[in-house]
Amino acid sequence: MFKKMLLGAAMVGAALIGLQPAARAAESVEVLHWWTSGGEAAGLAVLKKTLGDQGVEWKDAPVAGGGGSGAMTTLKARMTAGNPPSASQMLGFAIQDWADAGALADLTPIATANHWDTAIPKAIQKFATFDGKWIAAPVNVHSTNWIWVSKAAMDKIGGPAPTTYDELIALMDKAKAAGIIPLAQGGQAWQEATLFDSIVLTTGGPGLYQKALIDLDPAALASPEMHTAFTRLAKIASYADKNFPGRDWNLATAMVIKGDALLQVMGDWAKGEFINAKKVPGTDFLCFRFPGTQGTVTFNADQFVFFKHGSSPLDAGSTKMATDIESPAFQSAFNVIKGSAPARTDVSDAAFDACGKKGMADLKEAVAKGTLLGSSAQGYGVPPAIQNAMADVITKEFEGQITADQAFAEFPKAIAAAK
Ligand code: GAL
């Protein structure tokens, strides 16, 4: 159904190519993205400047909303109207869907000339290639199994740094007793699903995570460990303040930055907010892997795809953008600000802060050990329809609409219905 819709949209797009404004032929790129928070905008500014320095005009097409579901809705509408942007930020399985629909430009000549195949981890290449061709340029590797902790709050309650689930709970209890909000949580389905990824990982390790949240294995989904994961989700939800519903992820980060809350469970785009607020790791905030998940990295790599515009090859502006994104210098400059690790593994960590260096080292270790796993909450574990079905159940439990037992029972059913 989705595929048919995309195919139709791509055909309409192709049919209306003749109506495209002439401006696109000049050195410009119109880029659809959801990088609208302070830290995200600072990262994007690096890309804008890199292109601007080469005379490529940036036409901004932002659609606010972490996780990008709003941006993807806008993209579908634009494709249906035959008005594709030059490029769009995109994640995981969505990239494969648009490639399958024939909408994406072939980046293989640029990739070959710049050795993307040896520099980018295979787990990411799987999503950046289709039918043996490169159809996306990965700009970073974010990882999602982190906690971001206020140093002031930690000093006040006296730590220690949690390394297990039980220690995490003990630490949040201490914060509560000290009158500090233990958990800075945003109230959107994708944020709660991101938290749940880490809960499953700490509860059953990478084996359960892979089987339940990526392979969707019925036995794993019905296992006692998954029941424990849902029970833990309800427990952790009890540490959020009552104002969490609807809260944006970066406002939750701001609670930690101000020391109003102890910690946030979030991908390392949260670090972009700390950096943008001139906060220093080790001094103002602390970064730890979600307790019990050290050794595994659940990833979410931002990528840019470029749309076919008629039969002409990629225009000059888009070619420059795709090339620049994979240059080691850009990968360093951009990711230092964005909070992520470079998508290229041959980039030096010299310019990165302590959390960035840790992120890069953890990524390297995960690639070597085979524990670099796609984040299901972020579109790298399962296709979008299943991702959304999972998130719906998780968020209903988090908000207290259903119990942990009910969520455990509903989860496999929701997945089956979305397949
Ligand atoms: C993710 C994206 C990150 C970050 C986050 C919050 O989907 O990959 O780069 O922007 O959303 O908006």
Description:
- The chain is α/β, with parallel strands linked by helices and 419 residues long.
- The chain has two domains: 2-142 and 299-367, 3-Layer(aba) Sandwich (D-Maltodextrin-Binding Protein, domain 2), CATH 3.40.190; 144-298 and 372-418, Periplasmic binding protein-like II (D-Maltodextrin-Binding Protein, domain 2, 3-Layer(aba) Sandwich), CATH 3.40.190.10.
- Helix content is 52%, strand content 13%.
- The chain is built from 19 helices and 14 strands.
- It has helices at residues 2-15, 38-52, 69-80, 92-100, 108-113, 116-119, 122-128, 151-157, 165-177, 189-214, 218-221, 224-237, 249-258, 269-276, 316-325, 328-338, 354-369, 384-398, 404-418; strands at residues 28-33, 57-62, 87-90, 129-130, 133-134, 137-138, 142-143, 146-150, 181-183, 261-265, 285-289, 297-300, 303-306, 372-374.
- Mean pLDDT is 94; it is low at 7-25.
- Bound molecules: beta-D-galactopyranose.
- Residues 34-35, 40, 66-68, 91, 142, 249, 269, 300, 302, 378 line the site of beta-D-galactopyranose.
Shape category? globular
- Major sheet: size, sense and barrel closure? 5 strands, mixed
Number of strands: 14
Heterogens: beta-D-galactopyranose
Strand order of the largest sheet: 2-1-3-13-6
**Helix proportion range:** 40-55%
CATH class category label of the largest domain = Alpha Beta
| Assembly state of the chains shown | single chain
Enter the CATH topology name of the largest domain: D-Maltodextrin-Binding Protein, domain 2
Strand content: 5-15%
CATH superfamily assignment of the largest domain?
Answer: Periplasmic binding protein-like II
Proper CATH architecture of the largest domain: 3-Layer(aba) Sandwich
SS content category? alpha/beta
- Return Rg in Å: 21 Å
Number of helices: 19
pLDDT < 50 runs, ≥5 residues: 7-25
Overall mean pLDDT stands at 94
Q: How many separate domains? A: 2
Cα separation of the termini? 11 Å
